[in-house]
Structures are given as C-alpha cells and as structure tokens.
Design a protein that fits this description.
Length: about 575
Amino acid sequence: MIQRKDNKMDFLLEKRYLCFPIKCGAKPVKTRLILPDYTIVVSLELTREEPDFWVYYDALFTMGQTIRILHEGEKDDLRAENTCVFRDRPIEKTPIYREEHRPRYHFTNARGWINDPNGLLYKDGTYHMFYQLNNYGSRWYDKGWGHAKSTNLFDWEILPPALYADDSGYAISGSALFDPDNRAGFGKDTWILMYSSRYGGEPEKGQFQNIAYSADGRIFRKYSGNPIIKDTATINFRDPKVFWHEPSGHFVMVLACGEEIRFYRSLDLKNWDLSSVLEDTLINPQHKVYECPELMEYQIEGENNTRWVLSVSIDGFRRVLHIIGDFDGRSFVYDPSQKLQWADYGKDFYAAVAWNPQYEMAGRKLWIGWMCFWPYARECPKLEGWMGAFTVPRELRLVRHENGKLYIHQNPAKEIEELKQEAINTKNQVALPSNTAYRLPGGEAFSLNLELNKQDGETGNADILLHYESGETVTIHLDFLQNLLQMDRSDCNRIKLGSWFTEPLTAPLSNRNTIQIQLLIDKGSIELFLYDGRTCLTALCFPEKHSCSLEFYNYCENEIILNNITLNPIRRAKWTY
C-alpha cells in the first residue's frame, strides 16, 4: 500500500493478481480501479463471509504501476480496498479449470461471465480471440473484452482483458483487424478493435461505435475521438464488422441496426459514410432484430467461382442465419434463388463470428459461437466462478449440392485432432436388426463418428441415447417418415430450467439413405453434425454427473447398418492464466 485518502487507496502492483472475494447475490458495490492508461468501473458483490469464489485484476502488463481503488458505493457498503488481497497466483477454492462442471475442451474464461466472441485474429502462428467478459463476477454487467491466445484453437492462454467498462459505458460486441498500411494513423501494423458501447442499465441513451488500438496487442487505448458513429434514434445500433475491401479501396463496416443491416465505408476508420441499407422482407418478414453480422466472400468448393455470405444472429429466433448473395463494396444483394439457411438448429449457438480471413489466415473460414441461450443464460450455474462457454471452432465451406443450390457446411476445426486420444471403439460395420440395440462406452469428453444406413423407403425411426452416470438420458430421435430429428434433453436438467430448456429441439433430415453423424460430447454440452456438417445442432445439458455411455436402438421394421464407427476420448485442454 502507498497511501489512503478519503474514499480512495493507492497500491503498488508488485504481484500479478489483485483478488476480491465474491458472494453471488451480495449487494453490488460500485468501485473504480484507476491505472495510468485506463480506468475500470465495476460493481463487486463483495463479502466478509466465505466467498463463492475470488475474482482478480490481472497485472501481467502493468506490474510496477500504481493502481488506485476508489470506493463509489454508499458509506456503509463493504469496500474493495478492505477486502482485496495481492497474490502471485489467483486464489482458488477448487483449482481453476478443474471444477466439477466446467467443460474439458470447450473455451471458458478463467473467471467471470462471457457471452459473444468478438474480434478474432491470427498473427505469427497464434490465434487471438476477444470476447464479451465481466471479469469481476458471474453477472451480465460491467462488460469489456476478454483476450486469449492459442496456437491450436483449444489450448488457451488467458491474457488480461483488452477493454473494460468505464465512464463511456460497457464495451459490447464488434470486430478486430490489423492496419498494415497505417490508414487510420495510429501506426503501421496497429491492432484495431472496432466495438459498440452502451451505458449499462440505461439503453435509452443509445449505442455508439468506437475504436481502440494497440501497437502490440497487449494494452489497448480508446481513441480520443470516440464515438466515431452514433445514432441516438436507433436503440439497437451495434456489432460492427469491419474489414478492408481491396477492389473498392476502402474499409467496410457492416452494422446491425434493428431490423436492418447498414453498410458504411471509410478510408481511415475514423470518418464513415453510409453506403446502403439492407432491409429485405424476404429475409426478415417478422421484423426481428439483427445482431452480430458476419460478411465473407467464399470460394465455392471445387469451382473457380465465389459468392458472398452474410451471416446474422436474429434476436427473437435466437439463431444464426446464412444469406447468400453478392457484395460490391457498398451494397449486399440477397440472391432469392438460394435458400436461407439456419447455421444451427439448437438453442445454444448464437453470436457466431469468424477469424478475420485476411492477412495470415489466407482465406481460411473459421468461426466460433456463444454456447448458450439468452432466456436461460442468467440462470445457468455460476457458483464455480465461471459462466458461459463457446462452441468448438468450426471450419466453414460453401458447397454446391446436386440440386444446384449452395449450402454452408460446418465441421469442427481440424486442430481438434490434436486433442483426440487413441480410439476406444472402432468397428467397420455393425448390423442392427429391428428392435435391437447397440451400445458403446463413452466418458465425460469424446467424439463419435459413424455412418448410419437405412433401407430405401424406410418409414420407421431410430434413437441415439446418451445415458449419464447419474441416471439422466438425452434422446436423439430420428424419424424417417417425417425426415425429422428431435432431441429431448429435458431429463438432463439438474438446475431446473423452465420450458425454454425442456421443449424438444428439432432439425431436418434429408431423404438420403446414408446419414453421416459426428457427435462432440463435453461436460455440459452436445454438438451434433450431420451430412458432413450441412446440418448442425448444439445443446447444453446439465446432468449431476457428466460421464455417459451411448446406445443405438433400431425401431424400424428393417435392418439398419452402422458403418465406420470411431469413438475417441478427447483430452482436457491446457489452460494458462
């Protein structure tokens, strides 16, 4: 400690972690953490009792600086400066990333609430991921941008947050890019974060578009000229996707604005002109609110041709929609001859965005989504100190089918192979007569790949059952008469979520006789990929114990053949923090 005066106390950052004890449901105490380069405004659920968990300020990039803790709560509130503790390592009741219900290989932050992934970049062989984060509790408040890096998309190092909530409001969703030609004037090869901001619990004040920048990707500074775009008449005005469009010679910003998508252009990232507005009733006849737009040009697999795909999250449906069309640097035009496509039929895939395909990504299309659902997100388990997870990163391909239509296919990023352990079950073929079952071992985290072959014209059904050690079952029902898949996870609900969680999830089946199936199982989640990733379904599940086994049951009149069955345990991801 250096000194104390009035409602503030100054500390020298001699150890990396400044820890605070948190009790979920305690009175939030507004606190300001002031450093030379930035200020953090946060409300801490402090306690003098046994905490549920400890949160921390990470001084990895600010060691040796002074931090001022300023109490802005009421006079009798518990004060952060009286409860904080400095440590060389975070204070842990249970080792972080070893908690009972934390996923083994899906991304979670070491501490705090996460939702949307934001700016995603690849540089010098390392993937960088920024994301919505409240690092100081498991509530959807005081959000900034977390930052993590990885060389293989699964083993992550958690870095200090890139952006914090401050007097300009929360830093909500956006995108990231590099500026190799110093067009913005912040320096050659500067890291640029384009983000929206909002004033916490005061949505009537509107949302604004902003810039933060960094020379090295460590400490980001907010541009003094923020906001660069504002529209106080539009409450839902957010999530800028920004990239350089070489044919047009300008930057493009794709912005979600209520039930329309706006396209802006700029030469310097600071001054923007409106180019066009996409408001197409064929796309959005129910006038739902758009969020988190993603726009990329795809090479059609096996062809020399390209098409642009606009992917948007749609509030109300809480799903991500692919829209195929054309983009000339100013306007996107939907091609109505191409089918609108849901990216995922589960409830727990949202706000998906891609690693910037420019620079060292060399056109690779790779994205990741938030694995939760807003109507029950705030009721999910939080006492372990983390809240929220992401899907596995997914490869994206644009494929022309036999009917001439184009479809986006998604499959787990190839890097997941590094985590797969030796197969514990491999069979080239299993014949499953009518009314018989085939069983497989499983575990807490594994992948299953197989082909299911049914008879031509079969109108019966089959089940894939996940039996959890604690007695719960998730049923994946394949109805070959209606060409419909239905997942029932209602039994797997230890936290007693309501009808949003318990109602069945459905996805279409084609009339093909062969179904390629890939399942990814982790603690608390199921990701299902059918037909080489043409159809996907993501679902959270909450058993008491996470180890499960598998059972296939044939209710058809005819035999079903299971081919190329491979089950691989998936190791725990390696986490550094």
